Amino acid sequence: TIYDNKANVKKAEYYKVYPRNVHAMTTWNSIDKTIHARKRRVMNHAFSDKALRSCEPFIHSNVDRWIELLDREIGEKKWSSSLNMARWADHLVFDTLGELCFVRYQTSSIAYSPFAPLWAWLKPRGLDYLLAAAAPPALSKWQMFVEKCFTERAQIENEARGVSKSGTESRKDFFHYLFHAVDPDTRKGYSNDELFGETLYSCQYLRAFIDETMRMSPPVPADLAREVQEGGIVVDGQYISEGMKISTASYCMHHNPDIYPEPFKFRPERWIVDEKDDCGVSPESVSLAKSAFMPFSAGPRGCVGKNLAYLEMSLALAKIVYNFEIRRDHSSNLGGGSPDAIKGRRTVDQYQLRDIFVAIRDGPVVQLAKRTHMD
Questions:
Q1: Where does this protein hold heme (predicted)?
Q2: Percent of the chain surpassing pLDDT 90
Q3: Superfamily covering domain 19-221+306-370
Q4: Which of 80, 84, 78 has the alpha carbon at shortest distance from 333?
Q5: 8 A C-beta contact, residue 68 and residue 319
Q6: What residue spans define the domains of the chain?
Q7: 279: annotated binding-site residue?
Q8: Residues 198-208: pLDDT tens digits?
Q9: What is the per-residue burial (b if ≥16 Cβ within 10 Å, else e) of 184-217?
Q10: How many CA within 13 A on the CB side of residue 255?
Q11: Tens of pLDDT, residues 5-24
Q12: What's the pLDDT band for 67 if we cut at 50, 70, 90?
């Protein structure tokens, strides 16, 4: 209700802390609806179906290069050394968005830096100048790369920064749940021809796997605050007056047992209608699940790049399953919960999130072996 097109709300004032300056307003942090609508119209063209199809070769080439680099980690060995897939996801996303946003290929390994924890500490205090002075080398290098690409086109630069920052977090989670899947059949059934074009898009279980991943570990798990405007708003029969801050956290919504039975169980089948199956998934339950699903927010302020994210995740997941055998490194449960952790973080096979508006996470640690395909 509070995120749909007709809701009498606007983004809350706290979004004003995100722009570096008054010239750094983007579709994401603009509070004024008129400014947002103008910017969003431009961005919609960049992320239209036609535009995405035209950039698909770039995404394919980056995913293929990523697969090649993973293959090098195996070399002549049967199994690779232990790999932190959160870091490898960072590299893939940075390379892809760097080429798509800036038409520039970056060969240096600067996709990940320890900037996020520092940002989380500094930003609430409004100390942007201190953050700039204390930035680690990896961040400084990234800033130089962006500014070199766009020295004069400030608005485009800021939109590109927003896309490249927000675009990383949705890609990491599916590695965790892929490598914890207990059913071997979830890793079978692909052929090389199915990794391209319409056949890939119609892979029902692949999409369900990705949706279930983002249900359990949404890229933005916290609340997306809205401020009620003049005239108030009625939510579930409750009148809320002007000026009040209201929000819904996607993590809480996605783990509501009234909407998602067994919410802490990874079950991609919940997204596929199959009333004959033992799970008995009805059209009504799938429709309800989709109605509450908001990994990219919802309504007019929903993420403009969600179709790009789906495309990249689908390609990366399909190609890594097609090219490699995968096993967990059982000496490490990085990214998972622990029985000794604080309450709420004790589920061993649940991917652990740290909230800094977007979610930061680490792991899982896995090993890869080359698949042998029959001609």
A1: 303
A2: 41
A3: Cytochrome P450 (1.10.630.10)
A4: 84
A5: no
A6: 19-221+306-370
A7: no
A8: 677 778 899 99
A9: eebbeebeeeebeeeebeebeebbbbbbbbbbbb
A10: 13
A11: 889 999 998 888 777 776 77
A12: very high
